[in-house]
């Protein structure tokens, strides 16, 4: 099928997205847009990164601009001059988990959709902060239980009892 407009491409993308998610267990795939405008989908596992990997890519000293939104890693280096809030606003989230800042900024539903082309990976399972539905994972508190203290002091009653028996 040849796609002749952006609207047709979006409709086709949604159809293929639904189809692929129904038949494969992998949540992610790449979209390749050749010059002639055809959409070609290929299966690809997303690369896994740690927060330390993201932190060094904070846009300084020639580093790319990476940030995390709900445990997904995005590379916004090519978007730095296009961001409606400006370069400085984009840089506030560089190298960190920018989920709260992104949500608090009042972005439109279109802004959330525009994230997809910049997705490059996900956070490793050990460092995830969100579940598969995008809900914040509540950390369980681990409380150390103190062992019971043995009574090393003797009460008056113990002294009297021991004195009478012994």
Keywords for this entry:
166 residues; alpha+beta; Flavocytochrome B2, Chain A, domain 1; 2 domains; two-stranded antiparallel sheet; metal ion binding; Cyt_B5-like_heme/steroid_sf
Number of domains: 2
Q: N-to-C terminal Cα separation, in Å?
A: 101 Å
**Spatial extent as radius of gyration:** 28 Å
Low-confidence stretches: 18-35
What composes the largest sheet?
Answer: 4 strands, mixed
User: Architecture of the largest domain, CATH level 2?
Assistant: Roll
Name of the CATH first level of the largest domain: Alpha Beta
In N-to-C order, the SSE pattern is: HEEEHEEHHHEH
| Helix fraction bin | 25-40%
- Strand-residue proportion: 5-15%
What's the CATH superfamily of the largest domain, by name? Cytochrome b5-like heme/steroid binding domain
* Silhouette: elongated
Average pLDDT reading: 75
GO cellular component, one term: membrane
Protein name: Cytochrome b5-like isoform X1
Keywords: Heme, Iron, Metal-binding
GO molecular function, one term: heme binding
Question: Can you describe this structure?
Answer:
- This protein is α+β, with helices and mostly antiparallel strands and 166 residues long.
- It is built from six helices and six strands.
- It has helices at residues 6-23, 51-55, 87-91, 99-104, 109-113, 156-165; strands spanning 29-32, 40-43, 47-49, 66-69, 72-75, 119-123.
- The strands form two sheets. It has a four-stranded mixed beta sheet. Strands 1-2 form a two-stranded antiparallel ribbon.
- It is elongated.
- The model is unreliable at 18-35 (pLDDT under 50).
